Protein 1
Amino acid sequence: MRNATEIKFPRYTLVTVSNPASLDLDELARRWHFHPLDLQEAGTLAKRSRLETYADYACLVTLWPTYRRSTRDIKPVVLTFFIRTDALVVLQRGTFPVFTESIQRYAASNELRTALAERSPERLLYEILNQLYQSLFPMIDHLIDDCDVIEQEIFASHERQMISHILAIRRNITDVRKILQVHKSVLKRLATYLTENPRYAMQSTDRYFGDLIDYAKEDWDTLENLKERIEALQQTNESQISFRLSDIMKTLTIISVFTFPLTLVAAMFALRPGGGMPWASDPNGFWYVVGVQGTLALVMFFVFKRKRWF
């Protein structure tokens, strides 16, 4: 198999295949007798995490969020675990550096393999999942930091610059929530299956996988809080922008109200110069008109001020 890594432990074998092709899936079917539908789905990008159990193995499909720096968005990667009593087979669909580095450490370190030599495949599964959940914390912390920055910028009068940034962070939070949505329920089903199935030798399965369930619950609660927070920040930002637009419109309206009567007076005196228009022949007529305009402006100013329109 291409892009495959096989690590042998005394009691079981770890096999990982990155982006398996049809020939790889056929070989896995011949060697391990996995269900064709499970292998078929492992060859595509799954839409949700799930668990399928059989008499001699369990198929755990998990989605994990990965951050792409080039586009600043979150994309899912799929890890499909086939859990047998004599093997743990993992199919990776997509690029997931955290998982790849974890497998490389097991392949390169005799100490790590020795520590798990007397363990069972489900214990190795726990160790891998534990590392994956630990890797999610920096990503979630980064989302928290992004929200902190947005909040500071909004109240620093940079709300217009924050529009696209808020939308990007809200999209990322939504994507991570969608990817991790069913992890807790799937892990609960997996822990129940491993505990009740006498074929698996791992001791205290519920305690170990209980830690993973707690991680999944903690991540979900944090993401739920982030969702509410980014929505509140978006509403605050929109309110700030709306207030500023209203303030601008108010200023423009006041200016137009001031200038309209003055323009009207000037237009009236310009209709028929010298044809019976007051002050048309007076050498000081221009200043009289200016005085009328100034008086109107002062009257409007005091009226607006009294009504507290500005």
Protein 2
Amino acid sequence: MKSVGKAAVSAILIALLLTYPLILAPVQAQSPQADRIQKLISILENESARLEKVVKSRVTNATKQQELLSQLSVVKELLDNASRLANAGSYNESLALLREARAELVSVSRQLVPVILGERKKFVARSLEAEIRALQNQIKAMQNVASRMQEKSVNASQVLSLLNEASGLLDQASEKLKANDTAGAAQLVEQAWGKVKEAERLVFSLATQLRARYVSKDLEHLKAAFNVTYARLSKVAPEVAEEFRAWFEQKVSKIEALVSAGKNAEALAELRRLMLEYRDYMVLLTQATRLENLARAAKQLAGVVRPCNATLARELEASANALLDAIKSRDMAKVLGTSQNLRSLMAEARFACRARRAQGKP
């Protein structure tokens, strides 16, 4: 649509450009005047070539295309004759031919404008037809979803009502297109989009409500996964396993209380949060030992670099303690941040005493 619009604007601009009057006053027979006339000829030749491309690419009616190309052929002859006259020193006669050529180009430009605008209208109509088909397919898919929801005792009547309204608007839009009223069709399609979007929001809300009905079953699945993890962890780290169990049971109790109170939607939201936290917790458990070793190594390194750089040693110890605190509190975000900072400090510490040793100091 943009390319067609640009073509229309281009044609109009060409018409405006060509309507500027050429030099009307007689000119003196001097060689600089010949150069000026040749420049005018070059401008008109360029505009003629540009219009010819537009005619060949945009005008689909063969008769009209031939008519416009014939006009442009006349322009070419006029420009050739004007060039010969200018070379012969007949500047005023040359300018007269240029005015005729300009008039022909303006005529072609004006005839192109309605042709291009008509083509743009056809393009808009085709785009609207495609949009209507896409929306109709989306409506059918959403109607199927709403019907399945109703089979599961979910009240989706409002969704179906909105979709029916949207479908009716699209039918009206199709009729408008048949009547060549693209503006009216576009308005109706936009209204249909609004109805479909509203229906989408309702479907999402109803889907959440439907999913909330099964929150107890989902919670049981998560409990089963926890029991497996807890059993394995108890064999290698009993204290950590007990801490893990206490944390998990506290979260589960909150969800079960919400379910008992009939607040299934809230319970579902809490369950989703728990599943994310559970994943992070598991990641932390698998990395805890390695990260604790990293913190201990950093503290040892702090003792080594303290004689060379006391400030860096303090930063190492502080960062190591912060990492241990984050591990203890099971704060995954803080663990990631402090561990990265600690690694950077440890890399810096490797070279902390190099300058001192180069000076022969211990």
Protein 3
Amino acid sequence: MQIIQAILDLGPTIMMPIVLFVMAMIFGQKVGKSLRSSLMVGVAFIGIFAVLNATLGTIGPAVQAMADGLGIETLGTDIGWPVAAAITWSFSWAGLIIPIGFVVNWIMLGFGWTKTFDADIWNYWHWTFTAAMTFLWTENIWLAFFLAIVVEVITLKLGDWTAPLTQQYFGIPGTSLPHTETVNWAPFNMAIEKAVLSKIPGLQKSKLDTDNLREKIGFWGEPMMLGFYIGVALGVFIWAVSDYSWKIILELAVAIPALIFLEGRMIGILIDGLTPIVDGVRDVFQKSERFKDREILIGIDAGPIGLSNPASVVIGMVGIVIYLLLTLIIPGYKILPLADL
């Protein structure tokens, strides 16, 4: 248990390269090639989180000032996923979730119930959280383990289901995103798209994406420039409603484009590292009689992938303002959603 906890304490930037390297060795890949690929993944994750820390250091306090300026009164503040994950891994039975989750994943792979091998062991904390909350409420550890497995199974199946879309949209072949915090919205979003958005005349034919904008207006439509526009607009709004200096306009005008541009570069490094490992694992599976002609996907963290997408970042920044305004409108809402904005 202590060994598992010590590994978890290393965080995703260390865990992912270790897991990928061990997996590559198990599947008979060359040591040098596997080490290089695993290190590239680690470098990419460190770069991703470094960019996040640098840019969110500007964005976070500004959003807090905007909330204060809007007069949002709360009983508490969202502590964010890092603290939630740390609390979850302190659960006394948390160390058993990793081996249980790993076994469940392999059983599902063996019987063809999933295509995904979830290499993102750090994010096993999502179903560990389910176990911890269940045990807190019921003091029934067996029910806690059962519901954790249920969440894992659903997450893996949703990862399989959304893989064709995420691979095409984000440009990450051979992968899926079995990330509970994000993929659980897929059924709802797909239903809204089919029931509502697809019925709006002209919307399906519209090309409101960064690539199309860049083709039409050149440099002014590049993702980095979209970040600049959002940064300026958000900065002006924060300046207007808070006691922040006008300098926040310039700070956000640089911070948000930096987030969009640099995260994209880091994802390029991540893909360069993942591709040889994914291809090697796929080759081994294809040579196996049991897995022959079956598609095998490597599950990775959805968070960094989403943040590498310009449209996601732009929508997220606009969503911050909308979210805070909704906090003012929704009766009885008392939690400021700050940390995970």
